Amino acid sequence: MSDARPAAAEPAAPPAARMAIAVLALIGIFDAAYLSMYKLGIIGGITCTVGSCQQVQNSPQSALFGIPVSVLGLGAYVTLFALAIVGVQPRWADDRRIAVAIAVVSGIGMVFSAYLTYVEARVIYMWCMYCVISAILITLIFLLSLPGLRRPAAA
Question: pLDDT for 88-99, tens place per residue?
Answer without folding.
Answer: 998 998 889 999
